[in-house]
Prior knowledge:
- The strands form 2 sheets. The protein has a 7-stranded parallel beta sheet, with helices on both faces. Strands 2-1-3-4-5-13 form a 6-stranded mixed beta sheet.
- Helix content is 39%, strand content 14%.
- 37% of the residues are buried.
- Strand 1, helix 4 and strand 2 (75-80) form a beta-alpha-beta unit.
- It is an alpha/beta fold.
Amino acid sequence: MFQRLLLSRKGIGSSNLPNFAIAATRFLCRADFSREVHKMAENDDNNITRVLFCGPHFPAAQNYTREYLQKYRFIQVDDVPLGDVPDVISNYHICVVKNRRIDSEVISRAKQMKLIMQFGVGLEGVDVHAATRFGIKVARIPGNVSGNAASCAELAIYLMLGLLRKQKEMEIVVKQKRLGEPVGETILGKTVFIMGFGNIGIDLAKRLRPFGVKILATKRSWASDFPVSCQPNEIRTQSDTIDDLVDKKGGPEDFFDFASEADIVVTCLALNTETAGIVNHKFLSSMKQGALLVNIARGGILDYQAVLSHLKSGHLGGLGIDVAWSEPFDPDDPILKFQNVLITPHIGGVSEYAYRAMSKVVGDVALQLHAGTPLTGIEFVN
Length: 382
């Protein structure tokens, strides 16, 4: 039918049919996926795929996603207050959780839900078992392809350098119109222990190497999940890559030994029942006197009372955190009174590059779900 319609409008004779058919086929093959979805949706104005972003925090997530999808009228992107999510979730097909806990009670109300996903990696707030029972897929956006891991790794270095050069003291010196102080330290020659050598840990090690540091790293298993370059023309063996990035490899059983050797400890662990509160009194006491601790993972990795105690005693030389025990973090918390503590408002992955990339993933997933095609660019956990 499509072919006959074009023939009649263009006046193409039957003798030219083979060449025209080939050209038409090539045109259709080159047609952009999103344009085809758009045409299909125009035939059914009531066919709307609805995407829910939970809560007002991390606003660039929904803003950039709306911007990416603005020409697709059949995709609706909403953000609602955290407390309103249970009341409205039944209206949506995709839920982007951000920092909202999605438990079994909330999931039971998601009658139309096809996918629960994180705008990033961490899914510890989602009851994956409940979602599975209700037939809802759960997924994350892999950090190594979205730029999220690189963004978090860069922030870790920012916190490390800020602690070493005594950022808070510098601010006081500037206000007092003094020069040439405080005396800071270089990262050159330091030993850095990366707890959790996943995508963020790998990107951190790559960026630390030029600083001239010794790198210790732990992960549950070194037999899989080797670092893979995002550069298509870069060919390296797995063993060479690991050997280039890490001076000493270990597992969870090596935590205390590595902590005692390191000048800086950086936590890149996922938060689960095994890792919650793992940086406790015993761990901190095993660290060198005056060593620095940086946390870019989740606040629950650190035992709050243990950290506070070791800051008070002076055993912990400095603390840099992008994540806290409760968020938003209390600006009057006693931990923030220390001059050797730096905190950032959970912005590890919040960079233009990473958020544009992740917004594209969410947008493409919404288009794919609308079209009924396989969902790509995300990592399913159930």
